[in-house]
Each structure stands twice: as C-alpha cells, then as structure tokens.
Amino acid sequence: MALLGRLDWxxxxxxxxxxPGYVTEDELFPPEMSGSMGIPLSGWEGYDEPYxxxxxxxxxxxxxxxxxxxxxxxxxxxxxIYEKSDPGWQSVLKLHxxxxxxxxxxxxxxxxxxxxxxxxPGMRNMATMGMLDEMRHAQLQxxxxxxxxxxxxxxxxxxKSYDTNHWAIVAARHLFDDMMVTRGASEVALGLTxxxxxxxxxxxxxxxxxxxxxxxDWSFSNMISSIQTDESRHAQIGGPLVGILLxxxxxxxxxxIVDMMIWRAWKLxxxxxxxxxxxxxxxxxxxxxxxxxxLEWIVSQFERALLDLGLDKPWYWDQLVADLDHASHAMQMGxxxxxxxxxxxxPAGVTAEDRxxxxxxxxxxSETFGTxxxxxTDNLLEGKKGLTYPETLPMLCNMCQLPIASAPGPAWKVRDxxxxxxxxxxxxxxxxxxxxxxxxxxxxxxxxxxxxxFLAGMIQPPTLEGALxxxxxYPGERGDDAHNYAWVEKIRAARQKAxx
Amino acid sequence: MALFPLTSxxxxxxxxxxxxxxxxxxxxxVAAAAAYHSVGRRVAARPGCTMRVRRQGAAxxxxxxxxxxxxxxxxxxxxxxxxx
Lengths: 500, 84
Prior knowledge:
Number of domains of chain B: 1
Shape of chain B: globular
Helix content of chain A: 55-70%
Distance between the termini of chain A: 87 Å
Number of strands of chain A: 2
Radius of gyration of chain B: 12 Å
Helix content of chain B: 10-25%
Largest interface: A-B, 37 and 27 residues
Strand order of the largest sheet of chain B: 2-1-4-3
CATH class of chain A: Mainly Alpha
Radius of gyration of chain A: 24 Å
CATH superfamily of chain A: Ribonucleotide Reductase, subunit A
Distance between the termini of chain B: 29 Å
CATH superfamily of chain B: TmoB-like
Number of helices of chain A: 25
CATH topology of chain B: Ubiquitin-like (UB roll)
Shape of chain A: globular
Oligomer: heterodimer
Structural class of chain A: mainly alpha
Structural class of chain B: alpha+beta
Order of helices and strands of chain B: EEHEHE
Strand content of chain B: 25-35%
C-alpha cells in the first residue's frame, strides 16, 4: 500500500481535535487537570509547536540515540575511567545519579498529564513523545550507575534516594511534585517545560557534559548529552502555550507560574549544579564557573525568551543575579560541613589552586567564604577535626527546603524571612521563596521541613544518629571528605615550605 | 524550665542554625550557646569582644541578664548574635 508523504497528512493529524458528544467538554477535559483557564476548545487549536515530529520519525531517531549511548557505555565498560577519575568527579556522578533518575520517572507523569489533558492537539502530540523521553532518561540514568554499585555503595542512592526522607530529596520532591505532578496540563507546560527545561536542564546536561568530556568520562558525557537532545525538543511545549494564554488575556496567570517555577528551579540548581561546577569538578577540568553558565544559559536566554513571548522579567530578577555571587558557595559549604548527612563524599575544593580560581571567578570570595574556610583549614591543620563537624542542624527554608544561607565574613548577609500563617510560623531563605508560598499558601501550608519534623518529635532519637537513620543513611553510605583530607596536607606542606 | 528552640544567626557565619536553649537562660547564656555552634568552627574568635543577642533587624541588643522567658521571643524566632 502506498503511503502518503509526510506533508500530505501531518498538519491534519496534528490538529485533529475531539468533538465531544456523549460527555461535556469539561468532563472530557476537567479544568483542574487541563489548566484550561476558561479558554474554550477552539481557542487551543491555534497552538503551533515549533518542533514537529511524527511518531515513526521519533522512533527512528531515538533508536539511533540509544544505540550511540549504549555502545559508548559498552566500549568503556572494562576501562578504569571511574577508578582513575578524581574523587571530586566521582562525587559529581553520585550527586547527579541520586538527584535525577527517579525525578525523570516523575516527569513522565507530567508529560502524560499534558498528553491526555492538554487541550491543544499539538501539545498532546509533543507530550506523548516527551513522556517516552522521560522514561528513557530514567532508564538510562538508572542503568548507567548500576555498574558502579559494586565499586561504591553510595551509588545505591541512584535508585534508593526518592524512597527516603533524605533532606535533599525532600527538597527535590517538594519542587518536582509541585511543578510536575500536582498541577494541570497548562501549569505543567509553563512550569516544567518552559521555566525548568528551557534553561536549567541545559546547565546540568550540557554544562556538566562539557566538564565530563574534560575529565575524560566519555560514557557520562555522551549519555547526558543524548538526554539533552530530547529535552531541547520537548522543552518547546511551553512556548506556544504562552502565545495562546496571552491571546486570551491570561498573561498574569502565565507570568505567575513562570516566575514561581524559575525561582524554584534556580534554588535547586544552585545547590546541585552550582556545587558540582564550582567545587566538585577538578579545577583543571572546569569549563566555566556556575555563575558564568547561569549568566549565559539562564539570565540572558530567559530575558530574551520571556520578552520575545510577551512576558516580563520576573520581579526578583535583580535579586537572582545578585545571588549568583554566593549561592553555590553557601550550598557547597553546607554540604561539606554537614558531610555525614550526604550520600556522596563531598570535596572541600579549597586548595591554593582552587582558591585562586574561586577568587578570579568570584572576586571577593576570599573575604567572605574564604574566611570560613580559613577557620576550618586551621582546625584540620591543628588536629581539631571534631570542630569541623556540626552538632546541630542547619535551618531549612519552608519553600525550597534548602539551608537558609548566604555570604559570611565581614559582608555577612544571612537573614531569615519569617511568616505567620494561620497560627504556624514559617521561615524562608529569601523574599522570593516567601512570595512563592504566599501565592498559594493553602497548597503549601501543611508541609513539614526536616527541622519541623525534628521539633515535632518525628525523628527519634533526636540525635545525629537518629537523623541519619530517619534519612535512611546507613553506615557505608554516609559522606566524608572526598579526598580523605589530602588537601589539608598539601596546605601544610606549602606553609612549611614558605616558613622554611 | 523548658526547652525552647531558637534560630541562631551568628555574625560572620554563613548559615542559620537550630539553637535549643532553656526558657531560664539569660541572653548571655543564649549567646554562648550560639557561639558553641559557630565560633571556632567557622567563625574566628575575637578575644576581648563580648557577644550580644538582638532580635533580627533590631538596632539595640537585648539586656545581658534578660531571660528567654521574659524576652517575648517566639519559638524558632531568628536571633542575631553580634560582637561588641
């Protein structure tokens, strides 16, 4: 049987919509699942996705991508790239695999929401492929670290993390559940595909791929680059939706979701990607600083994309740009100081070479974060290791669930943003996290941070050991200094040489 | 006497911390408790200086001998501990 050419049927197929006869339109597309904002079915038919693909084309391309990723893995499986890599890079892998694969499965649910309940036929088509993309990403990122489990038990966290109450996973779930699985199709398209995937996944999956190539970890570099090619396709679901919403007088609604989710994504990536780029990756292999990546991939790209689509820059934009100077450093310092509660071994990243790089990329670092590392370094040099461990918990933000932290030293910028709501006290790390809460307080009010749970007696015994067990961090998995403090000895030798 | 949780923001440190104190503790005792988790760990000691407790954003510190139970501080309220 002769097949029609693609151009002869594609536009008809991708604009075919339902005409409900036995049920009402709202029964077919419940507003809370569709996020239809009162826009009738006909209003959605102008949705025009910029990236058009048929299912047979999708299967062909995806098969080739998988063949590429798996063949590189197979070719390198018996190499000793992992064993030879710097412990800091090994920690990048552990952090990445613990943070993302299971969230990818969650993202397939988000794509499924758009594939079923999106009112625009083109969106449903794109999201069907996006749903398959996210399953692929979960499977790739669970399969690749599986070979590393016998080498290091901390890689178990690739599969285990999302079933635990680990503090970082509570933070990740709070964001991803909010953004991906508990909102209507339009909000998912705005929050996940436009606000999150358009820029932020570029940083983790392209920025880190560049660092991986420098390190020589071709398997990881190739795999996450392969994932990013899917992301850059299905990330385009949100853009045309903005056009539909603006044409129907819904700019305020679109802007609100975009503003909330850009901020929420920024906070999480400052922790995960920021620390990995500025500290975990060996200094000789770092392509760009986290701040440089953010300015290029997020700040300038979003400014352009938002304005092109008819939206405005988020109200907190200047604050976000100002935070670039300290966010990754504060998260890294928290990771290292509270290292027993991580599923990875955290590098300090403060050798003389690291410090010179940090001062060059972040002028003023020595006068802020450097002062804190001076105290820590002196304690280690003087054999006072006990003082480099915490004896209490950091305060966590009731929105991003991350430590409330900022620049230390003479510049000292740390502060709490407190809020009373219906008899309960909430604490936030920033004006923008508080603003996110205030947008939908009834949605967020019931969540308990790890600190709230500790104070409510849910973590027993109320000790570090009790907290570690509550977070399912068992002996053999708990973090320590990635380089086993070898960097301290380097500093000692340098100081002795200088004194001699 | 009762356990009373506060949030400590120690001058020069990078993070807020959970600070369990007692309702009978004075502000000087609260400052010392906060210092235990910051000074010598991440903040350099300042010999000859004293530490004062103030509400976040307040210009004036709370009196040295004021007890937590008399201070009007709420559970988990953020206090700033500053050098003087």
